[in-house]
Amino acid sequence: MDQAEYFHSWCRQDEMMLNLLEKCPTQQIQRLPLPIRRLEKKQEIQKMLEARREDYHKAMEGVAREWEKLQEKEAEIRVGLEKYKKSIVKNDKKQERAFRDAAKARSMCIQYDLQLKALQEQCEELDKKRAKTKAQVQKYEKCHRYLEKVVKASEKFQSIPELMSQFHALVSYLPQEEQEEQKSQESRSQRIHCMEEKSDSIVQFSNEIHRLYIRLEKAKKKRREWELRWNQMLKTATRKNLLLGTIKAAVRDIFQTVISQGLGSNSVGEDDIVEQLEIIRKDIEDLTDIWEKLSLNEELMEPIRAPLLPTDKTLGHPPSQ
Fold first, then answer.
1. Checking phi first, is residue 317 left (phi over 0); if not, alpha (psi -120 to 50) or beta?
2. Helix (H) or strand (E) holding 143
3. 24, 51, 213, 305: most buried, per Cβ within 10 A?
4. What is the H or E stretch that residue 207 is in?
5. What positions belong to coiled-coil segments?
6. d(CA 183, CA 177)
7. In this structure, how many other beta carbons lie within 10 angstroms of the beta carbon of residue 297?
């Protein structure tokens, strides 16, 4: 038999004993043994515990209700706190707006004060101008009466404004007349100045023409001189060309004579005068050396016939063709 079964059996015995005690009177209960009395006390304690448990449950239910109420109040407080925060933010914004409005109002007051001072100064200036105009009106009142008399006396004008408009038209026309007169004087002075400049330029051009004419005469004179020089140069060149042709013909004759005697080479061209003269010079030097040698040995050797050289008479004639 385990403990659970023992406990259940003991509980059943206790219940049976309690039922018997309820059926027995109180005098008999006092005579009951100690275990029964203990069981009775235990039952009383259980009843007290159950009563306290019920009180505890009731108290917990009340606490739960109070807790719900507290949560509702907390939610209400939170909502109120949010509203309070929003109201604080709104109040801050309103305060800032009020500060800005106050600053604007102060600046507007300052501007209005400045405008008021400016208007006061303008009023003072207008008062001064009014006093001046009043003095001028009093001053020119005689003129007004005089103009009225003039209008009455004249048949052309019907009122003072008409007379004044005519007067202003004439006054405005006078500067135009002065300007036109000034323009005409300026144009006249410009024309005179232009004529003077033209006359000066004409004199300068005439002087320049005279100077150029003198230069032209000098150039013509120089041209004639250079023409004379050119003619002289042509004559001199012609004469020198003739002399050069004569010299060339003489050189050619001498060269032909030297070639005919076999003293030079025939490979030189007919127009190469320089080579021909060089060959003639060499031949003359050779003949001179030979002649000197022969003159030294004249007594020992037979007379040698020297080659015939061209005479002065044949120098100026060209060779026979």
1. beta
2. helix 141-153
3. 24
4. helix 160-260
5. 36-144, 202-229
6. 10
7. 9
Residue 276 near residue 252, CB atoms below 8 Å = yes
| Alpha carbon distance 79, 25 (integer Å) | 65
* 307: phi then psi, degrees, rounded to nearest 5: -65, 145
Contacts of 249 (CB under 8 A, 6+ apart): 316, 317, 318, 319
The C-alpha atoms of residue 318 and residue 251 are separated, in whole angstroms, by: 9
Average pLDDT over residues 63-73: 86
| Element holding 24 (H helix, E strand) | none
Element (H, E) at 192: helix 160-260
Say how far apart CA 180 and CA 194 lie, in whole Å.
20
Contact criterion met (CB below 8 Å) for 39 and 14:
yes
CB distance 268 to 243 below 8 Å: no
DSSP 237-268: HHHHHHHHHHHHHHHHHHHHHHHHTT-S-S-S
Point out the least confidently predicted range of 190-199, 232-241, 303-312. 303-312
Report pLDDT digits (tens) over 78-136.
888 888 888 888 888 888 888 888 888 888 888 888 888 888 888 888 888 888 888 88
Type of residue at 9: S
How far is Cα 72 from Cα 79, in angstroms, rounded to an integer? 10
Is residue 315 within 8 Å of 251, Cβ to Cβ?
no
As a whole number of Å, the CA-based R_g of the chain is 83
Cβ–Cβ < 8 Å for 257, 310: yes
Give me the residue label for tokens 């933010």: 89
Domain residue ranges of the chain, discontinuous segments joined by +? 3-98, 226-315
